[in-house]
Amino acid sequence: MEKEQVDDGNGQEPDSQRPPSSTGFTFFQRWFCRPVEVQKPKSELSEHERDAEASQDPQRKFSLLSRGSLIAEALLIVMLLAVVAVALAVTLTAKSDKLPEHVGNHAFPPSDDQPGNLAYALSKPPVRLGIFTNFPDPTIWHDRGKWWALATNDAAGILNRRKGTVDPKEFSRSNIQIASSTDFKRWNLMNSSSDPLPDPGPWVRRADKRENKPDRQHTGKGGGKGKKKPGESVKKLVGLANVWAPDLLQHPKTGQWLLYYAAATPDGPHCIGVGTAFTPQGPFKPGPEPLMCHKDQGGAIDPVAFIDNDEIYLAYKIDGNAVGNGGECGNTKSPIHTTPILLQKMSEDGTEIDPSFGAVQLLDRDKEDGPLVEAPAIVKVGATYFMFYSGGCTRSPSYNVRYATALRLTGPYTRKAGPPLMRTGDHGLLAPGSVSVRWAQAPHTGEVVGPGSQGHWKMAFHARVPTSMGRVRAMFTSALEFNGDRVKLVNDPDNVI
């Protein structure tokens, strides 16, 4: 006669519901099975079943209510919730990084100073967001009541690039980008039909030398893929990320506009060229040959023009880190290459090198600068020359802006000790650098004035921001205040946030 199982009164499960202590059960049987009553008559029981009943060890079958199953189910639910949380976070991040509709070919709307607006959120006095897209190495110039900003091609230097986030009809279609503003606050970014340099010159490397090849897939460096229409020149689909760091200058005597820029050559290294035009927005006609190359040292980039006593000079960087031995920006592993900033006097019209003047070194990297110094910008305030430059690596938070001073344009330049003028974390910026500094019009009048009057110095530069296409270098603006041999960022009187 089978014994009836009863509660023993101590709050524990009956013996038949407890995990068996028998070492004969496997791990699976012990944790994922539960005992079941044998319903068959003894005469129909197998020998194993009779032995189990005699020992009061009932038969065990898999059960979703077993302790092992319940634990596994709980872990599975936790894992599913974690996956959902990660997917939700990625979705929200992508939405928050999405480019606003007004970015591209339109200026920021009049409400951009309101809390919650993108320009307001990314502008922390004395710094203001100017152009929220990839607009690297900006240079600025004021002419007849309008500010112009020119920059490196929009495909250059994007970090963590995301596919399918750009307009293939516009992305990487301009050798040089151009934007304009009447108040140095709201900027109108023009499309590729306004490229100031539609032809960078015969010495510049093309992404594909074959032309007029119909229905051919072309891939340009950094520019994605584009399908060429029948009979269309492949030059119009060149990946143009290799045209860098333009600088604009109006000739002090003739009024002609000069555009200096760096571009890759067929054998790789960058050289510096010049184009001429009758307006600051071009189109500029390129010279037949580059001005300087230094190919054996890595190339020449980052040209910036300066007028001293009505004579034109060009400062630029030898791109030594381009042939470095690796590490940050290719140049932190020994032996480390030099990246000097040189000064070259130009011909009277600014389109050729003055052969009677040998290039002078103004500055070179040191341990404080990390892999390089680059992106010079020179201004003269009173009797002092200020040369701004960037150090660190533009692809990392180490990028920063410093300055050095001299009593002559040709130097020697003395580095200003102390922290950088701008670095990651200052004013909410990430990797700020590559500045352009210009004397501005008088506050609120639009009248062009000279140093010593009531005007002020304006500055534009780039810094990293997250967007739908990846981490790009957006343009920011500010103003500068000079005091003796020192300089600091201040609120722009024309551009109060």
Describe it for me?
- This protein has 497 residues and is mainly beta.
- The strands form 7 sheets. Strands 3, 23, 24, 25 and 26 form a 5-stranded antiparallel sheet that branches.
- Helix content is 10%, strand content 32%.
- It contains 4 helices and 26 strands.
- A hairpin with a 2-residue loop joins strand 14 (300-308) and strand 15.
- It has helices at residues 27-32, 47-54, 67-96, 118-122, and strands at 33-36, 59-62, 128-131, 139-143, 146-152, 176-181, 188-189, 217-220, 224-227, 243-250, 257-264, 270-277, 285-286, 300-308, 311-318, 341-345, 360-363, 373-381, 384-391, 400-406, 414-415, 422-423, 433-439, 457-467, 470-483, 486-490.
Ordered list of secondary-structure elements with their pairings:
Layout: H1 27-32, E1 33-36, H2 47-54, E2 59-62, H3 67-96, H4 118-122, E3 128-131, E4 139-143, E5 146-152, E6 176-181, E7 188-189, E8 217-220, E9 224-227, E10 243-250, E11 257-264, E12 270-277, E13 285-286, E14 300-308, E15 311-318, E16 341-345, E17 360-363, E18 373-381, E19 384-391, E20 400-406, E21 414-415, E22 422-423, E23 433-439, E24 457-467, E25 470-483, E26 486-490
Antiparallel strand pairs: 1-2, 3-25, 4-5, 5-6, 6-7, 8-9, 10-11, 11-12, 12-13, 14-15, 15-16, 16-17, 18-19, 19-20, 20-21, 20-22, 23-24, 24-25, 25-26
